[in-house]
Specification:
13-stranded mixed sheet, 19 strands, single chain, two-stranded antiparallel sheet
Length: 528
C-alpha cells in the first residue's frame, strides 16, 4: 500500500512539473519575431525622433509603452497612481556671478568660471583662504590632517594621487576612485562637513578657459539633479594665473601645480592666508520631467516578492537634422520587455500566472548616465530587499562584428552571472540548455574588461543596492553603435527572437521557484 502511494505521488509530482514546463513553452511561443518587429518598427520610427530623454519623442515613446501595458492587462503600481514614475530634470542659465577679493577682483570667463549644474544660487564670504591639496579625506590619504577649514574658503586641485604610477584610493589600479568621479561633488561635500564657507578649485590641466568651456557654463544642457546626500558649498573654478595671484610669492604654486599634474601626493597642506573674499552666483532654472514606465503582473502565493525585467527606451534623439533611431540600442530591449510582458499576461489571464509579482519597467535617461534607473533605485516603488532579481536587456537584436567564432548567429553575452548570487548561472544556463541552446558568452564579466560593460546599463543601479542581476547584450559596439544608422532593417530577427525567449524562460523559472535568489556572492567589479 505504501509503495503504491509513493509511486502515485511521484507520478503526480512529475505531471505537475511537466505541466509547468509545458506552460513555459506554451507562453514563450507568443514571443515571435513578427511581434517584436511590429513593436520595434514603431519604437524606432521617425515619429519618436530618437527618443532623447526630456524631449517630446521620449514622452511619445513612454505613452506608447504605457498603452501596450494597459492593453495587455498589466496594472499600474499603486504607489505611482499611474504607469509612469516621473523624475525631475533641470536646465540652468547664468544670470550673474561675481568673485571679489581684497587682492584682485576676478573677471568672469577669464579668471574664473562658475559651473552651473554643481552650484546653487547663493553666496559665500570668508576672511581666510586655506590650501588643502586635492581636498581628499580618506583613510588611505587625507589632505585635512591637522588642518582647520571652519569658516574659511578652501583651495584645492582636481584629481587624486598615485603611487608607483597607479591610483591607490578605492580599489586602485588604472582608474581613479570616487574622489575623481563623482569627484568635485564629493570634495565639496567633504569641505562642507568640515565647516568650510566655500571653495576655489583648480584644474591642473586647464591653465586658461576656452570659449567653449565658458559658454558651456553660461547655460547647461538638461541634467539629472543627483542628491548631494548632505551639505555642500558653492565654488568657482579659477585659472592658474589667478590662483598664483591669490596665494602670492610665499607659496610655491608652480611646484604644487607640477605635483598635481603628475598625481603626486602633497606632503604639507594647510597653507593659510588672510584675505577677504566674496563670491555670488545667480541662475535661472527650468524644470521638466522624464519618466520610467512600469507595468505590474501580480503574483499568487509569493506576490510580495518581485522579479524585474528592464530595458531603456531612450536614445540619442535628433541632431543636425539626423535621427538617431536606436533600433538595437535599446529599441530591441524595450520591445523585449513589451513582448515578455504580453506572454506573462497571457499566462496570468489563463490562470497560470507567476507566483512572484512581475515588474516590467522601461527606463529613460540611460544614455545620459543611467538617470532613470538611478532614480528608481533611490526611490523604489517595490522593496529592493524583496526584489529577487533584475533581468536587464540592452541591445539584443544585432551581432558583435568583432566576434569571429562559428556561433556568431547563436550567442548572447551574459553579464553578472558570477556576481551577487550563485543561483544566477544555474537557473539561466538550465533554461537555456532546455529551451534555446544559445552560446552564453561571459567575457564581459572579467573585472579587467576594458569596456567596463558591467557599469554601462541600468542593471548596475540594482546591483549597487545588492539586487542580483543578469544583463543580456549583443556586443554591437562597432557597427552603427550610437549612429543614425542603427535602424530596424539591420536587426537579426531569428537570433533576436531566440534571445528573448531564453530570457523569458529564465524569468519564468525565477518567478515560480520556491525561493528568492540567494545573495551570497561578492561583487568583484569595483565601482562605477
Amino acid at each position: 500500500m505504501k509503495k503504491i502511494s509513493l509511486a502515485a505521488g511521484l507520478l503526480f509530482t512529475a505531471c505537475i512539473a511537466f505541466a509547468q514546463n509545458d506552460n513555459a513553452a506554451k507562453y514563450a511561443a507568443a514571443i515571435t519575431k513578427e511581434r517584436l518587429k511590429q513593436h520595434l518598427t514603431i519604437i524606432a520610427s521617425d515619429e519618436f525622433e530618437g527618443r532623447e530623454t526630456g524631449t517630446e519623442g521620449q514622452r511619445k515613446a513612454a505613452a506608447y509603452i504605457e498603452s501596450q501595458f494597459k492593453a495587455m492587462g498589466l496594472t499600474a503600481a499603486t504607489a505611482l497612481k499611474g504607469y509612469q514614475q516621473y523624475y525631475p530634470l533641470y536646465k540652468d542659465s547664468l544670470v550673474s556671478t561675481v568673485l571679489k577679493t581684497d587682492r584682485k577682483d576676478a573677471e568672469a570667463g577669464k579668471d574664473f568660471v562658475t559651473p552651473l549644474n554643481t552650484n546653487e544660487s547663493g553666496k559665500f564670504k570668508g576672511k581666510k583662504i586655506v590650501f588643502i591639496g586635492y581636498g581628499i579625506d580618506d583613510p588611505a590619504y587625507s589632505d585635512y590632517t591637522n588642518v582647520d577649514v571652519k569658516g574659511k574658503v578652501v583651495v584645492f586641485f582636481l584629481g587624486e594621487p598615485k603611487k608607483d604610477g597607479k591610483y591607490f584610493l578605492g580599489n586602485g589600479g588604472a582608474r581613479g576612485s570616487e574622489w575623481t568621479f563623482p569627484g568635485i561633488s564629493k570634495k565639496l561635500a567633504t569641505a562642507a562637513s568640515k565647516g568650510a564657507a566655500g571653495a576655489l578649485v583648480i584644474n591642473p590641466m586647464m591653465e586658461t578657459f576656452s570659449s567653449r568651456y565658458v559658454d558651456g557654463n553660461k547655460k547647461t544642457n538638461v541634467y539629472f539633479p543627483r542628491e548631494a546626500g548632505g551639505k555642500t558649498i558653492n565654488y568657482a573654478v579659477i585659472s592658474h594665473a589667478y590662483a598664483k595671484t591669490l596665494v602670492g610669492e610665499s607659496f610655491d604654486f608652480a611646484a604644487y601645480l607640477a605635483a598635481a599634474k603628475a598625481n603626486q601626493t602633497f606632503g604639507i597642506n594647510g597653507f593659510e592666508k588672510k584675505m577677504k573674499i566674496n563670491f555670488a552666483v545667480d541662475k535661472y532654472r527650468t524644470t521638466t520631467n522624464a519618466s520610467n514606465v512600469v507595468g505590474v503582473i501580480e503574483g499568487t502565493d509569493k506576490k510580495d516578492e518581485y522579479v524585474f525585467v528592464t530595458g531603456h527606451y531612450d536614445h540619442l534623439g535628433k541632431h543636425d537634422g539626423k535621427i538617431y533611431y536606436g533600433a538595437d540600442d535599446d529599441g530591441s530591449g524595450t520591445c523585449s520587455v513589451i513582448t515578455m510582458a504580453e506572454a506573462f499576461a497571457k499566462a496570468k489571464a489563463a490562470g497560470n500566472g507567476p507566483r512572484r509579482t512581475m515588474i516590467f519597467m522601461t527606463v529613460s535617461g540611460e544614455e545620459k548616465g543611467l538617470w532613470g534607473s538611478e532614480y528608481y533605485s533611490d526611490h523604489p516603488v517595490f522593496s529592493l530587499d524583496k526584489t529577487s532579481v533584475d533581468l536587464n536587456i540592452d541591445m539584443v537584436g544585432r551581432i558583435d562584428t568583432e566576434r569571429k567564432t562559428a556561433d556568431t548567429l547563436n550567442y548572447v553575452y551574459v553579464i553578472g552571472h558570477d556576481k551577487l548570487s550563485s543561483d544566477l548561472p544555474v537557473i539561466n544556463e538550465g533554461a537555456n540548455n532546455k529551451y534555446t541552446q544559445l552560446t552564453l558568452d561571459y567575457k564581459f564579466d572579467d573585472p579587467k574588461d576594458p569596456n567596463r560593460i558591467y557599469f554601462r546599463s541600468d542593471h548596475y543601479n540594482f546591483a549597487r543596492k545588492g539586487v542580483p542581476i543578469l544583463f543580456f547584450y549583443d556586443g554591437m559596439l562597432k557597427s552603427d553603435y550610437h549612429q543614425p544608422t542603427d535602424t530596424v532593417d539591420k536587426i537579426y530577427w531569428d537570433v533576436y527572437e531566440k534571445r528573448v525567449k531564453m530570457i523569458f524562460h529564465t524569468a519564468w523559472e525565477m518567478a515560480n521557484r520556491d525561493d528568492m535568489l540567494k545573495r551570497d556572492t561578492p561583487l568583484n567589479m569595483g565601482t562605477r
